[in-house]
Amino acid sequence: MMKLNGIAASSGVAIAKAYCLVAPDLTVVKQQITDVDAEQAKLDAALAVTTEELKAIQQMTEENLGAEEAAIFGAHLLVVNDPELIAPMKQKIADEKVNAAFALQEVSSMFVTMFESMDNDYMNERAADIKDVSKRILAHILGVKIPNPSAINERVIVVANDLTPSDTAQLNRDFVLGFTTDIGGRTSHSAIMARSLEIPAVVGTKEATQTIEDGMMVIVDGLSGDVLVNPDDETIAHYEQKAKAFSAQQKEWAKLVNEPSVSADGHHVELAANIGTPEDLESVVRNGGEGVGLYRTEFLYMGRDALPTEDEQFTAYRAVLEGMSGKPVVVRTLDIGGDKKLPYLPLAEELNPFLGHRAIRLCLERTDIFRTQLRALLRASTYGNLKIMFPMIATLQEFREAKALLEEEKANLLAEGVQVAEQIEVGIMVEIPSTAVMADTFAKEVDFFSIGTNDLIQYTMAADRMNEQVSYLYQPYNPAILRLIKMVIDAAHKEGKWAGMCGEMAGDEFAVPLLLGLGLDEFSMSATSILKTRALLQSLNKVELEELAVRALDEATADDVLAIVQQYVAK
C-alpha cells in the first residue's frame, strides 16, 4: 500500500477502482510498407471502431447531459465517415507505400490547416472536429487508449494530472465517486467543480498519475487530503467506517435545511450557493440554499462546438430563476480566459493569461458575444429575482461600459415589445486589489459587491493559485486580505449597498467567524458547505466577533490570525 498526500479539495471519502484520465503518446513514425491492402484494412478497422465508439458516446451524452451537448458527436460521426477525408488517406497509403498512421496524420493535418486558414466560423469548427476525430482514429491504429470522461460507465475514481473545467463538467456523478490530481489547489476549477458535484477530491498530490494505474483500488480521503493506493482489507474497512461517520454528520446538518442562517446573538446573514449549470439547483435546494450567489455562466459555453444561441441561454437562465422560486440569483457574465478556453473561440497565446485578455476585457471587445448574453439575461429577468454581476472589473470605466451595453439591450428589447424586469441589481466581482482599494468610489455606482477571494488572494499575494509550489501563499487569513475585504464591506454599507463573497473563503470554517465579524452580508459557497456553515453560525456571537475581527486586522501574519480564530471557536 502506498499513501500520497495532497490538498483536501472536496469533503468525503471514496473507495473505488482507478480510471486514469491521462493523454496517451500519439507519436507517429513514418514507415515504408509492402502490404498496401493490410495497411488500408488497418485504417478501415480503426474507422469502424471509432464509429461505434462515437455512437455510444453520443447516446450516453444525450442521456446524461441532453441532445444539445450530444450534437458535437453527431458532427464527429460525419467526419469519420466522410469519403473526401478518408479516400485521400487510402490513396496516400497506396501511392507512397506508407503506414496508415502516417497517412492519417498527413491528410488530416492538411485539411485542418486549410480549414483553419479560412475566414469562416463554420469551417474553423470543422477543423476542430477533424482534429478530435483524427486523434481518436489514430489512437485505435496505434493501439492506445484515449480516455473520455463522459464515457465512464462504472464506479471509479478519476486520476489525472489536472482536470479542465470541460473535463470536470462531463463527469457523471453516478459513476465518478471521486478524483485525485497531480496539480491544483483548493481553489482550482477542478476542485470547485468537485464540490458542486458533491464528490470527494484530493488535488496537488504531485505524483498520482505516476503511481496509480488503471484498475488499481484507490481511497480518496477528501477530509484529510490523503490518497491510498492498493489498500489492504483492514484499511478499506477503516475508511468505510470513516465514510459512514461523515455520512452520519451530514444527516445531522440536514436537519437545518429549513432553518434560518442566524448567529447565536440573532444576526441573520444569507447563505447562498455557487453553481455552474441548472442541474446544480437540486443540490442548492437540498442543502437549504437561500439563493444563488454565483452562477458561472461559462459552463454554458463549454463542451460544445459553437457559441450558445440567445434562446439556448435564455432557457438556461430561466430554468435557474424559476428553480429558485423568487430567491436571489446572481449571474456572473461570461468569464472566459486564463485556464478556461473554448476550442471554437481561439484566443491569442499570452505569457500570463490570468492577467490577460479575459472575462469583462474579452466581453467589451467581443460585444457581439456579450450582447447576446445580456439579451438572454434580460429576457429571463421576469421569471425570478435576477441580479447581474460583471467579473474582473479593474476600472470604473469598464463597469460603466458594461452597464451601458446592458441598458442599450434593455431598451432594444422593450422597443421590440419584450418584457423585462423593472428592477435588476447590477454589481461587480471584487477580485482585483485596485478595485478593493477604490471600493468607496465604485460603491456610489454599483448595486452590490461580491468578493471573489480565489482571485483576490492570488493577485494580492502574487501567487498563482493553480501552482502547488506556491500554495503556501494562498492565505485567506492574511491581514492584508482581511483589510481589503473590510474596505469593500465598509464602502458598500456606507452607500446602503450589500456586500457578499463568492470565493471559497466564504465556506471556510475558520474564515466564517472573521467574515461575520467584518459585517459580510451574503456568504456564497459550494452547496455542500451550506448546512455545515449554518450549524457553525448558530454557535457564533457576532458582537464578540466584531472585536475579534478588529484584533485580526492588526495581527502580523496569517498564522497569528488563524490562531486567535481557532482559540475563539474552541472555547
Task: Explain the layout of strands and helices.
Blueprint: E1 2-5, E2 7-10, E3 13-20, H1 36-64, H2 67-80, H3 83-96, H4 100-116, H5 121-142, E4 156-160, H6 165-169, E5 176-181, H7 189-197, E6 201-203, H8 208-211, E7 217-221, E8 226-229, H9 233-254, E9 270-275, H10 281-286, E10 292-296, H11 310-323, E11 328-332, H12 360-365, H13 367-380, E12 385-390, H14 396-415, E13 425-430, H15 433-437, H16 439-442, E14 448-451, H17 453-461, H18 479-494, E15 498-501, H19 511-518, E16 522-526, H20 530-537, H21 542-553, H22 558-570
Parallel strand pairs: 3-4, 4-5, 5-6, 9-10, 9-16, 10-11, 11-12, 12-13, 13-14, 14-15, 15-16
Antiparallel strand pairs: 1-8, 2-6, 3-7, 7-8
